[in-house]
Amino acid sequence: MLPFHRAVQDDFSAVNQLIIDKLHSDVGLVENIGHYLVEAGGKRLRPLLVLLTANALGYKGKDHLALAAIIEFIHTATLLHDDVVDMSNLRRGRPTANAQWGNAPSVLVGDFLYSRAFQMMVAIGNMDVMAILSDTTNIIAEGEVQQLVNAKDPNVTEANYFEVIDKKTAILFAAACEVAAAHCGASNAQRQALQAYGRHVGIAFQLVDDALDYTGDAATLGKNVGDDLAEGKPTLPLIYAMRTGTPAQAELIATAIRNGDASQLPAILEIVQATGGMTYTLNTAKAQVQSALSQLQQLPDNHYTQAMRELAEFSLARSF
């Protein structure tokens, strides 16, 4: 457990139990895959943001537990679909669900998790929450399609890259904070600040994720290093290196992206380091974290908001 989890340790345990309870299905394969994913763990930052936001605002009810579980179900559904699209075989240090059971069951259980999340939303009965999360899931789907279109295209611009990670990753971080704020009756200023905080943390998280794909190690990351290159994903370290490197360096990276070829990974990593692509990416993430922290001035100063500061800083400093 990371330090900032401890601020809401009891709530976090309750959410984990609720997730297990809500995975119940009369179809055994649904439960098998669902429990496999839950047992894999993960950082659970998105549901944690729901819990921290609600507690920071002084919420005394129990609906925030269900909201946190809903956010985790939506996130897990996107991972199931992602791994099928990307043909990934390793996540969180274990074989992916599609590697274990095949693509069709993974997609269908992802659909189950989406629909279970919306059943739980209906039970809460807050139209504002449903509006936020229905918009969010739609935007995530757009981001996934946009990323698919960008695959193996070395001409993707930095602006286009940021548009994808905003839709694909940051939007759910933002929604986690905003649904808690909306349900807890936060002021408009607080709600906007929390939404912006989540978005900045989400962008920083993805930037670091993209950097770790070139500098981490598989054992620590729980996934294969170089996966992005093998999938032909033009992420920020590569985009910057192509823009600032020599024509020969840019062409080597462009060819690897076009072919989805990770065989040149060591040479490409040297180019990314030499051109300052990794430094640029991490400095951009650092600026996002600073923007996130500035938004917390709208919230009461308590140990929950302090944990939110720590979570934002973790998104930058993490190695997994």
From TrEMBL:
Domain of life: Bacteria
The EC number(s) this enzyme carries: 2.5.1.-
Primary enzyme class: transferase
Cofactor(s) of this protein: Mg(2+)
Pfam families: polyprenyl_synt (PF00348)
CDD domains in the cross-refs: Trans_IPPS_HT
Keyword terms: Magnesium, Metal-binding, Transferase
GO molecular function: transferase activity
Family: Belongs to the FPP/GGPP synthase family.
Protein name per UniProt: Polyprenyl synthetase family protein
Source organism of this protein record: Cellvibrio fontiphilus
